[in-house]
Amino acid sequence: MTVAVVTDSTACLPRESVTRHGIHVVPLHVVVEGRSFTEGEGISSSEVAEALRAHRTVSTSKPSPGEMLDAYEKAAAGGVDAIVSVHLSASMSATVSSALVAASESPVPVTVVDSHSVGMAMGFAVESAARYAAAGASAEVVAQSARSRAEAARAMFYVDTLEYLRRGGRIGKASALLGSALAIKPLLELSDGQILPLERVRTSSKALVRLEDRLISAVEAMDAPLGVEIAIHHLDSRPRADDLLRKVRARLPHVRSVQVVELGAVVGTHVGPGTLAVAASPWSGPSTVIGAAVL
After folding, report:
1. Among 3-17, 161-175, 215-229, which stretch is predicted with the lowest mean pLDDT?
2. Which long-range contacts (CB under 8 A, 24 or more apart) does 162-166 make?
3. Which domains does the chain have, with CATH numbers?
4. What proportions of the chain, in percent to the nearest 5, are helix, strand and coil?
5. DSSP 63
6. What is the percent of the chain with per-residue pLDDT over 90, rounded to a whole number?
7. InterPro entries this protein is in (predicted)?
8. Which distant-in-sequence residues (6+ apart) come within 8 Å of 213 by Cβ?
9. What is the pLDDT of residue 273?
10. What's the confidence (pLDDT) of residue 171?
11. For the chain, give me the number of helices (H) and strands (E)?
């Protein structure tokens, strides 16, 4: 069996990774003042940041079932027997719903996976799925590899303001922090597809220190015999990301990899300029694949 891996643009996968692993990416859309743009093509993350700072109306929309089906048909045309389609949390977007509708019309079987995540916490899971697919694993094993790795990841982030999460309706249980938003700089966590409050900090500088410390603690607590991969996300805040990158490399010299990945325009719309996020994920990949079993 040959299996193709499909995901969406909120995985924030670097272009080089998409090409190397042969991953099919379906873009979401950003709507600025009523004009719709395709993520990754029609609008950049920095342009979204500028629009948000200018108080322009910015929203996002899912890919249609037709767009998902186009991706499945292209993958099928490449000769694959099955598709595993991994997407951002259904609690945050109806993208999974579009994928399920498209799957019912796909020319080859499609397994849709709700990652319960977003950003590189999902992206790392997609990369692992692609490695299993390349090794000849069944669709069932490929899908399970994505689920397992997404579940094992930790994703935490700092935002300059909760306003963008509130506007986009993605604030979740972090709404408990709104009453004191002017007095604090919040640290948040993405857990099982939900945004949760993690810590209240008085200043942005202290918040960034706490984000670093929490990342270090999370990595050190992971059961990761093959190492940990870390992604540092930002929206129009590269100096903050580079500073954290240097500190993480100094404190965790033995991690498998650490990289800076700018947030995409869609995720950026909901968290706002100045956001700094981290995703840590225990590495996983196939060693020996025999039928449907991975040893």
Report:
1. 161-175
2. 162/186, 163/272, 164/52, 164/269, 164/270, 164/271, 164/272, 165/195, 165/270, 165/271, 165/272
3. 3-151 (3.40.50.10170), 154-282 (3.30.1180.10)
4. 45, 25, 30
5. P
6. 78
7. DegV, DegV_C, DegV_domain_contain
8. none
9. 92
10. 47
11. 10, 15
